[in-house]
Amino acid sequence: MGGWPVVAASLSSAFAFAVATSLKHVSASQVPDAQTMHPRAVGPFIRATLAHPLWLGGIVADAVALSLQIVALHLGALAVVQPLLISGLLFALVLRQGTAGRISRREIGWGVVVTAALTAFLLLAGTAGHRMPVTDGADRAPAVAAAVIGVLLAGVCVALGRRQTSGGRSAALLGIAVGATYAGTAALLKAVTDIALRGPLALIGSWQLYTLIVLGAGGLLLNQLAFQAGPLAASLPAIATVDPLLSIAIGVLVYDERIRHGPAAGTGLGLLLLLLGVAVIALSRVVHPPSAPDEPQCQQP
Q: What is the pTM of this model?
């Protein structure tokens, strides 16, 4: 089954994810500032976030979006659903115009470029059509290497983000860290799903389950810190780009998935990656006046 029900469910899921993103971004601007990432600042930030009605509303919207995504994936192919979900990036930017009161044509333009380039990359890569059957699970050595690289990437981006004086650049760097964390979470979720097939005792006794919980919680925390650091047009494109690209890399290296290869496909993928990088950097450099509503004004703890 496919056709318009798949498109409708996918776009509805993307819109619900955009609503969740917008609510969380507003919530991040209304809780104590935690950009120093000092434990004395992070503690009040976490407590205030967990009790903030907008953040809780965002979690509800996430649950709705996930449910719609599951429906879409049940009705249609991953290669169709996943690119449609990327439209959530544009939905989120448009929703921020309604809540922040302003958004420039430049932001919308570069947002369109990011969405189009990322969609084209996923379609050209074609990983969904070349998935290998799961037998012994992940390849251990590549999995360890991917974990180390992911942790280093996230750590470096967090450290550099703390030193930035520009809210846009800080938000973009933290967004990269969030994307890397989300990609790792997705890989662990796949591993946990495979382990769960062996029975509940195997799942409870696995280290992957508890690592997934810790990494998932860390991703939520980093996500809110990225939203608090600067405009949504800087953090969200970085997250939306790094997450699927690193997920593809993990799928290829760890789970033996395949992407299209050859001179034409390789050249196309390389150009799309270049375009993505330029667009994300351009969005992170969008400068707003200090009093602009889109730039979070954080309360002091």
A: 0.79
